[in-house]
């Protein structure tokens, strides 16, 4: 890997500083301005995103929440350069989405694990690194680190179909960390999992974020999940897809599942629910 | 219970055996497995012998020694042991084959193994050609809209022409520019066997889902990398079924290609010579060996599939 990609510890230090620094001084990771995305369909154009503004700073954990069709996934895909913009400005670490993708600046976790069934767990996690031509020993070391981070080090030689859905999604998160990205994009990664597995994975993601100081953008339609994980929640609304309100959670940095019963947590969840309801009455 | 090697059996998900099943039920299960095919085989053989008697009887009676016994069993016996029967019996075919294989040197044209080797050589060379061509065409078609639109119709059209019509033309045309023997046969086999491989591999190369392709895009993978790391490994599940169809076509193709070459070598040549001279045993011998050859090649494909599946942890 080139030296542009910081090592894990360096991210860590930077994150600690970032967390202490006031918002105004933290580096901007994602900057979206008057973003519009229109899909041409057979009968009429569909406005997926309308004049969306979004700023994500280093160390933020931003959740995009909203009803189906509100464009939250489209926004995430636009950031990842998987969906083309119709108009507006979007920059990732000062680069265009295309440049950011070419520089492998982010890790992306899809709705499904999308593991390659003919590769075992470690080979799935080393796949992104194989594409860069990294020597085998190096990529296996790094993959082992990432698997360890997600509590999967004993499953390196298993095949995807031998793992539960939750474990498969953890493998896909480990895989997304391959390039040591400072930005992690997650598109409803736990939507298909049961409540208990989801809780445990939320904890994994939270610890990962707290440990590494990643910047994360997380698409979800679960209010407790959004509140639990985020520093900021962006509530979106459908037809046309737009940002309705941005809610700062202001919850303590280290979170536990029990925290979900506290007054503060419930209050934030209530705020999000109110905002979503407001959006619904517009529609 | 007789256990066949794993690669002989069809791929199946590991099934949990009922631990309470006893030896008797296992023996019962084995009998239930073996009995039906055994009954069918026995029935077929009985029908064969009856048919051989009915078809050979008129000539057998004409050739019988008028001074010898002429009862029913003598007629049956005579019709089952003619030198040039209309329909030889299975034991006659087998002993004729054994005679050709064990009583002639391996390089003698009368040895069926030599003829089988010629046919196998043509089938395998052609199959290799067909596989390379088929995979290359499929890769082209998947990567280029222009190729998809301009080549695919020709690929399909190529298979609507009966091979019997094309084979002599190919043999004559290639013969005129100095290619004789193996080359025209391999060309015909390749022409037949590329088709299932192209069709199967186009489907295989296109089988990665959108999410897998998006994933590769987030890694900034090149088209070549998407091909080698995603499309190619995914398509293996389609390659082996295509190869099995191609093998069957390759044997047919090799035999058909041996017919118009003036019947020099190969099982096709034996078939032709047999039908010229009324040597039905020779024809049947060629047929038996052709099917054994096909079974062997299919077995090799399965073996390859088995090894690949094993290297992938048990699933293709």
Could you give the topology of this structure?
The complex is a heterodimer of chains A (283) and B (316).
Chain A: H1 8-20, E1 28-40, E2 45-57, E3 61-65, H2 72-79, E4 87-92, H3 97-102, E5 106-109, H4 121-130, H5 136-149, H6 165-176, E6 183-187, H7 195-212, E7 215-220, H8 223-229, E8 232-237, E9 242-248, H9 263-282
Helix pairs in contact in A: 4-5, 4-6, 5-6, 8-9
Chain B: H1 23-63, H2 72-79, H3 90-102, H4 112-143, H5 145-158, H6 163-176, H7 182-205, H8 210-218, H9 223-258, H10 267-276, H11 280-311
Helix pairs in contact in B: 1-2, 3-11, 4-5, 4-7, 4-9, 4-10, 4-11, 6-7, 7-9, 9-11, 10-11
* Mean of residue pLDDT values of chain A: 88
Shape of chain B: globular
- CATH superfamily assignment of the largest domain in chain B? MetI-like
Number of helices of chain A: 9
Structural class of chain B: mainly alpha
Percentage of residues in DSSP E strands of chain A: 15-25%
- The amount of helix of chain A comes to 25-40%
Instruction: Provide the CATH topology of the largest domain in chain B.
Output: MetI-like fold
* CATH superfamily caption of the largest domain in chain A: P-loop containing nucleotide triphosphate hydrolases
| Quaternary state of the chains | heterodimer
Instruction: Enumerate the spans of chain A where pLDDT stays under 50 for 5 or more consecutive residues.
Output: 1-18
> What spatial form of chain A do the alpha-carbon principal axes imply?
globular
- Compute the gyration radius of chain B: what is it? 25 Å
Largest sheet: number of strands, sense, barrel closure of chain B: none
Main interface by residue count? A-B, 25 and 21 residues
Domains counted in the coordinates of chain B: how many?
A: 2
Mean pLDDT of chain B: 88
